[in-house]
């Protein structure tokens, strides 16, 4: 198998994937743009070391990034060279394990995505399974026991050189605040191998759920089980808790776990509310989590700050498409319309600020069809920029049509185009 990992085609594909994903430099500070020249000079040496089981994996760079709840998540960033060989290993292991994965696992798999997981969750709820066992795994990526994971992989991978390389990547020390720390458990987020390894381990959970006949949805370490009564939910929750503790040695976050009803449950950024359509009593529809609206508006506000040094087109198109594409399964049209009115005024505010000097404002207003006296008066106004942006003087001159000529994409039009 190691020959498959180090084959020219596999390594070329791995390099292309790593380069396309960009990412930060690791502990050796070699940037992604230097990767090609590094591999051209040392690839044969690296391949020889891997095949002879003498390749030395570099330490991982530990970087903390903020989470939406104010806490921090630790990312592990391998060197760019190690990322290529991890990706090459991933490409060989994925076809071996993919056929073994269960149908209700949706995260980081070919032809599967978050929308399918959300749709299955809604289907479960609307099929009468409205008591939901919501289990939050405590720091999952930090708690994976290496020996359990390696035993599962060793059942299908009998190549010693491949297992040695995998074990080296798993046990590479991590550099945090200048100090090297040994690792005997955990799969660092940020590694090309992490999603596959997490699926290999949690597939054991999936098989247990299938064996017990439960309806469930899993996306990476985010999973929920759907049953028809509160009593059954408690029984199932206790049984799965014991399985996770005794078989996989994975702790759960008790504060975030529990039995939910649809109104109190959220999955991958979506929530549930009753639908009041005739003949659909007891049914639910998807809505966007309140915090996701707040985060979207905050990002738009940042991108439309008058001092951000980006072009007008960049202000408009950054962020919008990805957010709408992800949340288009929910009923978002009414809120998008309200948000769009605010966004257009933010853009007018940016334009007004960009004009800067009063004389330039006067001339630009005249070009937009304002008579000279009115243009002069508005160019010398003492009103703040935000107040001017919301006033008729800009609403009737910097129209939606003119904004579109500058590259503005209507949120509503984009949403309608893709639903």
Shape category:
globular
Instruction: Outline the biggest β-sheet.
Output: 4 strands, mixed
Instruction: Please report the total strand number as a whole number.
Output: 11
Sheet with the most strands: spatial strand order? 2-1-4-5
Report mean pLDDT, rounded to a whole number.
91
Radius of gyration: 27 Å
Low-pLDDT parts are: none
**Distance between the amino and carboxyl termini:** 44 Å
* Helix segment tally: 20
Helix content: 40-55%
Strand share of the residues? 5-15%
The structural class is alpha+beta
Can you describe this structure?
The two termini are 44 Å apart. The model has no long low-confidence stretch (mean pLDDT 91). The chain has 20 helices and 11 strands. The longest helix has 23 residues, at 333-355. 52% of the residues lie in helices and 12% in strands. The relative contact order is 0.09. The protein is α+β, with helices and mostly antiparallel strands and 419 residues long. Helix 2 packs across helix 4, helix 7 runs antiparallel to helix 8 (160-171) and helix 15 (358-367) packs antiparallel against helix 16. The strands form 3 sheets. It has a 4-stranded mixed β-sheet with strand order 2-1-4-5, with no helix packed on it. It is globular, with a radius of gyration of 27 Å.
């Amino acid at each position: 198998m190691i020959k498959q990992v180090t084959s020219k085609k596999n390594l070329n594909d791995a390099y292309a994937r790593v380069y396309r994903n960009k990412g930060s430099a690791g502990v050796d500070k070699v940037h992604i743009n230097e990767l090609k020249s590094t591999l051209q000079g040392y690839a044969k040496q690296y391949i020889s070391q891997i095949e002879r089981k003498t390749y030395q994996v570099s330490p991982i760079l530990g970087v903390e990034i903020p989470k939406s709840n104010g806490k921090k998540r630790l990312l592990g960033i391998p060197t760019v060279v190690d990322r290529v060989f991890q990706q090459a290993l991933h490409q060989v292991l994925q076809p071996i394990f993919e056929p073994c994965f269960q149908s209700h696992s949706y995260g980081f798999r070919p032809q599967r995505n978050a929308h399918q997981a959300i749709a299955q969750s809604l289907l479960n709820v609307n099929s009468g399974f409205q008591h939901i066992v919501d289990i939050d795994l405590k720091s999952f990526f930090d708690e994976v026991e290496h020996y359990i994971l390696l035993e599962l992989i060793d059942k299908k991978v009998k190549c010693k050189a491949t297992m040695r390389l995998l074990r080296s990547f798993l046990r590479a020390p991590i550099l945090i605040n200048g100090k090297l720390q040994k690792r005997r458990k955990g799969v660092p987020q940020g590694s090309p191998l992490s999603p596959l390894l997490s699926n290999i381990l949690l597939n054991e959970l999936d098989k247990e759920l299938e064996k017990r006949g439960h309806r469930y949805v899993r996306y990476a370490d985010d999973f929920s089980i759907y049953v028809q009564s509160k009593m059954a939910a408690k029984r199932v929750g206790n049984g799965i808790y014991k399985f996770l503790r005794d078989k996989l040695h994975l702790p759960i976050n008790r504060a975030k776990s529990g039995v939910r009803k649809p109104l109190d449950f959220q999955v991958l950024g979506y929530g549930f509310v009753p639908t009041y359509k005739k003949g659909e009593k007891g049914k639910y529809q998807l809505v966007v989590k309140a915090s996701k609206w707040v985060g979207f508006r905050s990002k738009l506000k940042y991108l439309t700050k008058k001092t951000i040094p980006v072009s007008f087109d960049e202000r408009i198109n950054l962020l919008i498409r990805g957010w709408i594409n992800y949340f288009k399964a929910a009923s978002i049209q009414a809120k998008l319309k309200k948000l769009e009115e605010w966004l257009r005024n933010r853009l007018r505010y940016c334009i007004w600020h960009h004009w800067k000097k009063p004389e330039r404002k006067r001339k630009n207003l005249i070009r937009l069809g304002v008579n000279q006296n009115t243009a002069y008066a508005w160019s010398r106004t003492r009103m703040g920029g935000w107040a001017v942006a919301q006033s008729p003087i800009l609403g009737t001159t910097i129209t939606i049509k003119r904004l579109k000529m500058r590259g503005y994409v209507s949120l509503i039009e984009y949403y309608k185009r893709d639903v």
